[in-house]
Amino acid sequence: MKGMILIILLALISLNISAPDPNFHIYLGFGQSNMEGNAKIEAQDTANVSPRFKMMAAVDMPSMGRVKGNWYTAIPPLCRENTGLTPLDYFGRELVEKLPEEITVGVINVAVAGCSIDMFDEDKSQAYLSTAADWLKGIAALYGNHPYNVLVELGKKAQQEGVIKGILLHQGESNNGDQNWPNNVKIIYDRLISDLGLDATKVPLLVGEMVNADQGGVCAWHNEVIAKVPSVIPNSYVIKSNGLPSGGDNLHFSAQSYRDFGKRYAETMLSILETQGDDTQTDSTIIDDNKPNPNFHIYLAFGQSNMDGAGEIETQDLTVSERFKMMPAIDFPSKQREKWKWYTAVPPLCRETSGLSPCDYFGRELVDKLSEEITVGIINVAVPGCSIDLFDQDKCANYLSTAADWLQNFAKLYNNDPYQSLIDAAKIAQKDGVIKGILLHQGETNTGDPNWPENVKIIYDRMLAELGLKYEDVALLVGEVVNADSGGACAAHNEVIAKVPSVIPNSYVIKSNGLANKGDGLHFTSESYRIFGKRYAETMLQVLNKEGN
Known about the structure:
Blueprint lengths: L1 H17 L5 E8 L1 H4 L6 H4 L6 E4 L14 E3 L13 H12 L5 E8 L13 H6 L3 H8 L5 H13 L3 E8 L10 H15 L9 E4 L13 H5 L2 H4 L3 E4 L15 H21 L20 E8 L1 H4 L15 E3 L16 E2 L13 H12 L5 E8 L13 H6 L3 H8 L5 H12 L4 E8 L10 H15 L8 E5 L13 H5 L2 H4 L3 E4 L15 H22 L2
Parallel strand pairs: 1-4, 1-5, 2-4, 5-6, 6-7, 8-11, 8-12, 9-11, 12-13, 13-14
Antiparallel strand pairs: 2-3, 9-10
Helix pairs in contact: 4-11, 13-20
């Protein structure tokens, strides 16, 4: 009997030893040359790599003493012994820097330079290889002509030690503009999820863009195709490449760009981990088992300087209800606020150097008038002096290329894509609550443009599509510029703004009559911002009342 008990105890101990470590986070990477790594590895890339960042060799790497299927500290190269720097290098470094010390990160990189997405589709790979160039066949042969199978084989081995947290993809140059590409990626992603026994709701797909048009990318058109992936694959995210220079061929990134690109992948993954409860808790008490709280009403705001906030913040503005929250879209170091976390909405709400904006008293008025179980959260992304084109991703890069340096500097805070910054933050916020409305104040730079309502509609429609919303789900509140009765320099644009409700369903114009300006004919006074914010709120309260909220 004692012998039997001892055997059982030993068996239990053995099971415990071999159980996957939940603090070992594993990521799979696949794609073509930019995932392989094309830039020269420099001294800074091989120094100070944390032992908490691991790589599993996907092929033997004899010159480095690495054997396929074994873990090593992730000193580059991470794909094969003759490859270069890849986004995975600084993806992993950024994760271990930002995650708690008990977390170890491991990556597995299987990539084939120059390949089509068909290389990873087991139903197509052999037919594809049969007509491929000899040099591509040579790379594929390193993976036994089945790179997908190697990724699954090693993924299963890694699962014995840790937990797969995400899948990273960079591929598309060889499928440039192929409208079926998102569906082809879905086939591969779905098969990976099935073959590895994963839950797609817990394992996101992070898809990186090609070298962007703003850097002369020869395959930049494919970014329009990549943008469609989140509408095809749930729990997928696009990692933007804007502002990342190429290495000179307009196809591959420079070494510094790979570093920055990897960090962008990591920033998105960190936000996902946070919403899954894998990171430290934020200031908010709203999150409840990662289910959106219907009593947490979220509002998005965008525009130029009047939405950014040009009013002086006074003592009366610093006392704020705990039921009014703000989520920064960028870090506020001097305020000790990190992007994508909730904080009590003490101004400023846009950037750490912004002033009072309509958002401040919009939120205060809502929490004052709504029932006590309702909490209000706001995300404000605004760029002083910008045209509406800055928020249109089809026009943003061209617009910025000729913009003044000071405006470009504002845009850089949002990685030259404020629209995407707003969307990224909004998707995180949707894990916590429900988006009820979108606030816009912009137009001074587009004064009198008769196409402005249609241009707003393009941006608004894209927002709704990316956030899974419908016209009837949210209201668009559009504020007038300083009115003629207050000497507004751009007051003529209010005639254009008045046409928005005829172009965009469920949209409303917030009047600015009687609101004084600071003397420049453009920006409101602090008191005017307070009143203006309340006017936005009064309209929103009417909308909520009509909806039965």
